[in-house]
Specification:
This protein is mainly alpha-helical. It has 10 helices and 2 strands, in the order ααααααααβααβ. It has a single domain (25-187), classed as Hypothetical protein, domain 2 (Endonuclease III, domain 1, Orthogonal Bundle), CATH 1.10.340. The chain has helices spanning 25-33, 42-55, 60-65, 67-73, 79-83, 87-94, 103-123, 126-130, 154-165, 173-182; strands at 139-140, 186-187. The termini are close together. Mean pLDDT is 93; it is low at 1-12.
Length: 199
C-alpha cells in the first residue's frame, strides 16, 4: 500500500492544492498526506467510518482537530473493543469534552462496530466488502474545479443502501461518498492539484 505519510511534494514553484485545503495546517497536512490515498487496512477503514459518522452535520476540520481525542476515547479504533462497549463505557465517552458528545453518534459507533465485524466474518475483511462497490479499483475523476465535485455518486448510493440494510447508522450517500474520497476509492483531487497525478 502506498505510504500516506511520506507523500512527495513538488520541489519547484508554488504548490497547487485543491481549494478547500487552505488556511489550517491540519487541513493542509490531511490533504497532502491522506485524502485520496487508497486504504486497505481494516482498522483504518473503521477509523474513517467512525469519524465520518461523527462529522455528520459538522465540518470535517472540526473532526480532524479532535482526531487524537477520538483515538484515545475509542481504543485506537479497534472495532472489536468498540463493539463490546456497554452503557457505562458509553457514559464515560459522553463525558469526554475532547470528542463530539452526541449520544446518537456514540451509540451508532458501537452498533457500526458490530456490523463491521459481521461483514468481516462474511467477506474475510471489510476491505474486500467496501472496495467491491468500485470494482476494487480507484475511480479517477477529472475535475478542473472543486465546484464540479459531486456530494454523492451512484456507487455511494449503492453503498449507503447496502450498509443501512446491514445495520449501519450515519451512512447516508453523502457520508459514504466522503468515505470513498478519504480512503482513495475515488480520486477527487482537481487536475491542477499536485496530488492528482501522485495517486
Amino acid at each position: 500500500m502506498r505510504s500516506a505519510i511520506n507523500a512527495p511534494c513538488p520541489m519547484n514553484g508554488p504548490i497547487k492544492r485543491c481549494d478547500w485545503a487552505s488556511g489550517d495546517p491540519i487541513y493542509i497536512k490531511y490533504h497532502d498526506t491522506e485524502w485520496g490515498v487508497p486504504v486497505h487496512d481494516d482498522r483504518k477503514l473503521f477509523e474513517f467510518l467512525l469519524l465520518e459518522g461523527a462529522q455528520a452535520g459538522l465540518s470535517w476540520l472540526t473532526v480532524l482537530r479532535k482526531r487524537e481525542n477520538y483515538r484515545k476515547a475509542f481504543d485506537m479504533f479497534d472495532p472489536e473493543k468498540v463493539a463490546s462497549y456497554g452503557k457505562s463505557k458509553i457514559r464515560s465517552i459522553l463525558s469526554d469534552s475532547g470528542i463530539i458528545r452526541n449520544r446518537l453518534k456514540v451509540v451508532a459507533a458501537v452498533s457500526n462496530a458490530q456490523a463491521f465485524l459481521r461483514i468481516k466474518k462474511e467477506f474475510g475483511s471489510f476491505d474486500s466488502y467496501i472496495w467491491g462497490f468500485v470494482g476494487n479499483k480507484t475511480i479517477r475523476n477529472s475535475w478542473e474545479d472543486v465546484s464540479q465535485i459531486p456530494p454523492r455518486s451512484r456507487e455511494s448510493e449503492a453503498m449507503s443502501i447496502d450498509m443501512r440494510r446491514r445495520g449501519f447508522k450515519f451512512v447516508g450517500s453523502t457520508i459514504c461518498y466522503a468515505h470513498m474520497q478519504a480512503t482513495g476509492m475515488v480520486n477527487d483531487h482537481i487536475m491542477s492539484c499536485f496530488r492528482y497525478k501522485q495517486l
